[in-house]
């Protein structure tokens, strides 16, 4: 594997270009300046490729496992294993994000995923091996995502460009979910499940190449104290991050709304059956929330200034789940789709929240904090889905979804007050540091 010593991006002219592209005045709007940063373009394309690879591989692997076993349980477990190992990987291996140079971490993570996917396509790989490899990919994912999130502060600075860059990656994530399953269906119509999985190995390798040759080499944030202390360093970082009252409140504000908002998605099929609609309507129910999120994020990112984005964080977070209460009246398709789109739009509060978290977390802990953030987010979404399914065993689906909206809103009220109480006395900095003087990561 190439080392981090040589890279075309290391030349002074490229450093100057990345640096001069970063500063953005508080009044600047739109995503154009983010794409003007060469390194971000490489990260963006790598993110798109790896996401499509993950989505397609999940679909193809589910079909493959079902074809080998005929077991709906094992097929469903394949999807579940995409969420459960996040907590393990994000907690036990979070120290990797700060201990090693980010570009190296990102490239190695992509290569590990490509290797796992390559072994999956071998005809002799048993079902147990397929599920174990799925777990490895899921455990690597929070380390990759957390490292990349921390790296964006080095590529884009800590101001508005970072916020808009994170917003773009979220938009890509939502869009990839919509496009990825469609692409997976097309691939499965043309190829065998193993053939479709082979395509995803190529996407991981292309992502690794983009990150290796499209981003600069930067030193690690912290050197650690030896390989044997990685677990202790990861757990210590998690304790330090969560012990801070301000950071803990911001983390929970990232985690709790998604935990409740997944209820209608988890129960979309049962609700479609409850109101007597077909597969097309079910697809609309599944797409409404991501479409609402993408539209709102684009609007907030392009039409609002950083100050206004900051002002809407707490009100939108507090009210974002309330549209789900409409489910209590067992609405028809039109009203249900509108409610889901509004609930998706409520997630736009995270654009301003991103800036608050960057300002609150010390640079030396940033990689571990972002990895922990990713692990908690995915784990609690899985818990939310499981709790919604359990509740639907005893209550009508529409009542479960409405209850998730109401209970979630009530839980958020004290959290919003806590975040407001811990707000810094001075406004959050929006100026951007010189990228050439920053430590670590790329990707």
UniProtKB/TrEMBL annotation:
Membrane association type: Multi-pass membrane protein
Stretches for region Disordered: 1-27
GO molecular function: transmembrane transporter activity
One GO CC term on file: plasma membrane
Transmembrane segments: 44-67, 73-93, 105-125, 131-156, 168-190, 196-213, 249-269, 275-299, 311-329, 335-357, 369-391, 397-417
Gene3D superfamilies for the chain: MFS general substrate transporter like domains
Keyword Protein biosynthesis: no
Superkingdom of the organism of origin: Bacteria
Keyword line: Cell membrane, Membrane, Transmembrane, Transmembrane helix
Record Pfam families: MFS_1 (PF07690)
Localization per record: Cell membrane
Main location per the UniProt record: membrane
Protein name: Transmembrane secretion effector
Species this protein is from: Streptomyces atratus
